[in-house]
Amino acid sequence: MAKNGSNSEDYTTPLKRLLLAVVILCLLGVFFLWRIDSPRVERFRAAVIDTVLPSFDWAMAPVTATVNLGRDFRSYQRIYEQNQELRRELRQMTAWKEAALQLEQENAKLRDLNNVRLDTRLTYITGVVLADSGSPFRQSVLINVGSRDGIVDGWATMDGTGLVGRVSGVGANTSRVIMLTDATSRIPATIQPSGQRALIVGDNSASPPIDFLEDPDQVRPGDRIVTSGDGDVFPPGLLIGQVAQDPGGRLRTRLAADYERLEFLRVLRDHGARRVSNPAALILPETPPVDAEEEASAEAEVSQ
Amino acid sequence: MDQNRLQVWGMRAAFVLIALVIVFFHLLPLDPSPGRWAGPDLLVAVVFAWAVRRPDYVPILLIAGVMLMADMMLQRPPGLWSVLVVCAAEWMKSRERRQRETTFVLEWMTFAGCLIAITVVYRAVLMVLIVVPGTFTLAFVQVMMTIALYPVVVGVSHLVLGVRRAAPGDVDRLGRTV
After folding, report:
1. Is 60 exceeded by the pLDDT of residue A11?
2. Contact assignment for A137 to B31 by CB distance below 8 Å
3. Which residues of A touch B78 (CB under 8 A)?
4. CB-hemisphere CA count at 13 Å for B148?
5. Burial B65-86, CB ≥16 within 10 A → b, else e
6. Distance (Å, rounded) from C-alpha B39 to C-alpha B28?
7. Interface test mutation site (partner B, options A132, A180, A203, max chain B beta carbons within 10 A)
8. How far apart are CA A103 and CA A100, in angstroms?
């Protein structure tokens, strides 16, 4: 039997080597294809996730709910303090609500006088967060609305208060939202009240740094950061957060959206958003500009 | 002999199931805010622990398929991490055939060495191709957590699922010694 075994081993070893080589080549091929034509492979990935994940959902929702319930349970321990805190806040809020109502009425009257038609561009679709990115290196979530609901790549998403991220990758039933904290996220922003332009650069931390600031002296911790609308990335004026300073003196963003509890996300319909269809579309114009000299020589050739 | 074959296919199915469960728990939207710690990459630990013990439970195609699925679902560049894991797993399989009488500490060291090596290659390739590979600290924490949890993975595989090294008398369906 030992002899028999060694014989069949002689047959299988080269075959195994061949199989290994083929597998390695295939996987490397997939990787390089992704590197060369990223949008296409990412679309394929979105399609795969789109078909696989909704079937996981029946199991995912209860498990998530159970874990969150356990976490909530821990917060019951200081329920009395929280109650007191909320009562205090509620008193303040009632005062604000009164002021807001008065302002709303005044606003309505003024609008009526001016006959203003409000901009209806920014309507939204609300989606439920289905899944995480699954990797500590990527910050994104999957929501349960997709191209079926009219979602388009590049639209902004917010939770109730602040900007969360940008839609990138749309399947039929799901779409992926790359959050502001992701290392690939760059969002042009304006800092109020000084009006300074800056970029909010995601770096995989909870408070992304503020970069490319014209004059840091004009910016103070606590200033509001809103989107600037530069480069047609997002509609202008969406709240991102507040300026904060880390111990090293670097300016960072304290995000307004509650990233720890993302349950529902609003996707803002924005028909002016720029779409990225091919890899170079962000950097290069759609049609390459023809060199003036080349054009002239081409014309000369034609006339000859 | 048929019984044997059935068991091998059962364990292959169990491997796929475990991989799906791990990916499922990775994808749960529990805390979408960026964390300071990265959890262990349990899938790699399972692949290596099984490849060393019972190579026939995790054939090349199965490892490649499962890892590619994980790459797709977990937003990694598709293919690169899979190819590294396949290579490392095959190397560990071939090494295991040569020296069966290894101690667990030696196996653990080999696993740590392999994991560190493929992580370094992975990050180097991504950097050369100008893809952001993620912060170094996170990757370091992840590798360390995975190495630390390797004995647990081995223990659970051994005790619960019965994945242990083939005894000297065991033969596979072709009559070869395993």
Report:
1. no
2. no
3. 30-31, 34, 41, 45
4. 8
5. ebbbbbbbbbbbbbbbbbbbbb
6. 13
7. A132
8. 5
The residue among B75, B82, B136 with the most chain A CBs within 10 A of its CB, best to mutate, is B75
**SS3 readout for chain B:** CHHHHHHHHHHHHHHHHHHHHHHHHHHCCCCCCCCCCCCCCHHHHHHHHHHHHCHHHCCHHHHHHHHHHHHHHCCCCCCHHHHHHHHHHHHHHHHHHHCCCCCHHHHHHHHHHHHHHHHHHHHHHHHHCCCCCCCHHHHHHHHHHHHHHHHHHHHHHHHCCCCCCCCCCCECCCCCEC
- At residue B36 the predicted structure's pLDDT band, cuts being 50, 70 and 90, is confident
List the domain boundaries for chain A.
11-71, 82-113, 123-275
Q: How far is CA B61 from CA A240, A301, B54, B143, in A?
A: 46, 58, 15, 25
Superfamily of domain A123-275: Rod shape-determining protein MreC, domain 1 (2.40.10.340)
**Among chain A residues, CA nearest to B137:** A137
Nearest CB partner across the interface for A181, out of B29, B34, B177: B34
Neighbours of A63 (CB within 10 A): 13
pTM of structure? 0.79
**Residue keyed to tokens 């014209």:** A214
Q: Would you tell me how many other CB atoms lie within 10 Å of the CB of residue A59?
A: 12
CA-to-CA distance for B66 and B48, rounded, in angstroms?
A: 13
SS3 A191: strand
Residues in chain A: 304
Percent of chain A with pLDDT over 90: 21
Beta-carbon neighbour count of residue B158 at 10 Å?
Answer: 14
Interface of A with B in 190-209 (CB under 8 A): 203-206
CB B169 within 8 A of CB B162: no
Residues of A in contact with B24 (CB under 8 A): 56, 59-60
Q: Does the ipTM exceed 0.95?
A: no
List the Cα angle A259/A265/A270 in 5-degree steps.
120
- With an 8 Å Cβ cutoff, are B129 and A35 in contact? yes
Which amino acid, residue B1? M
pLDDT in tens, B95-129: 876 666 668 888 899 999 999 999 999 999 999 99
What residue ranges define each of the domains in chain B, with the CATH number in brackets? 2-27+35-159 (1.10.1760)
Cα–Cα separations (whole angstroms), residue A25 to B52, B58, B88, B91, B115: 24, 19, 15, 17, 21
Q: How far apart are alpha carbons A238 and A228 in whole angstroms?
A: 8
| Mean pLDDT rounded to a whole number for chain A | 82
Alpha carbons A155 and A164: distance in angstroms, whole number: 11
